[in-house]
Amino acid sequence: MAFTPYHNILGTNGVHVELLAPGDNAGNVNSIMLTNVHATADATVSLSIAKLSSSSSLNASETYYLLSTVAIPSDTALLLDNSGFLKFDNSISGFSMFITVGSSDTVDVAISINGA
């Protein structure tokens, strides 16, 4: 899978979405912008990295949360911009990055990596 910097996450289409797959080699993340595009409701967001024990995102042998059930107010963005904190092994044998949102949430994600 090739690195994709922009994502539109709709909770109605799936609340647990892989943003970076193993082998994307995008582990040198500079920043991540999470934007709640809903006009009136908060979005509940969790962001994690996981080492998969199989091809299923639900069978992770290791999971580490960068954010856990954080409420982002309507029409507001949350910027994570500490590249040391966001760096992880994203090689083919490394970690994936996942976002989890509420079933009625709409969140845009922009990921900036070194060299992209």
Write a short abstract of this structure.
With 116 residues, this protein is mainly beta.
Textual characterization of the structure:
By secondary structure, the protein is mainly beta. The protein has a single domain (6-113), classed as Hypothetical Protein Tm1070, Chain: A (Sandwich), CATH 2.60.290. Helix content is 3%, strand content 52%. The strands form two sheets. It has a four-stranded antiparallel sheet. Strands 2-7-4-5 form a four-stranded antiparallel sheet, with no helix packed on it. β4 (43-52) and β5 (60-72) form a beta hairpin. It is globular, with a radius of gyration of 13 Å. The two termini are 15 Å apart. The relative contact order is 0.40. The mean pLDDT is 89.
SSE topology sketch:
Layout: E1 6-10, E2 16-20, E3 29-36, E4 43-52, E5 60-72, E6 76-80, H1 83-86, E7 96-101, E8 106-113
Antiparallel strand pairs: 1-8, 2-7, 3-6, 3-8, 4-5, 4-7
Q: Describe the main β-sheet briefly.
A: 4 strands, antiparallel
Integer-rounded radius of gyration: 13 Å
Overall average residue pLDDT: 89
- Binned, the helix content reads under 10%
In the CATH hierarchy, the architecture is Sandwich
Number of strands: 8
State the low-pLDDT regions, or none. Answer: none
Distance between the termini: 15 Å
Overall tally of structural domains: 1
The helix-and-strand class reads mainly beta
How do the strands line up in the largest sheet? 1-8-3-6
Strand content: over 45%
Characterize the overall form. Answer: globular
Classified by CATH, the class is Mainly Beta
Q: What is CATH's topology name?
A: Hypothetical Protein Tm1070, Chain: A
Count of helical regions: 1
* Topology pattern, helix = H, strand = E: EEEEEEHEE
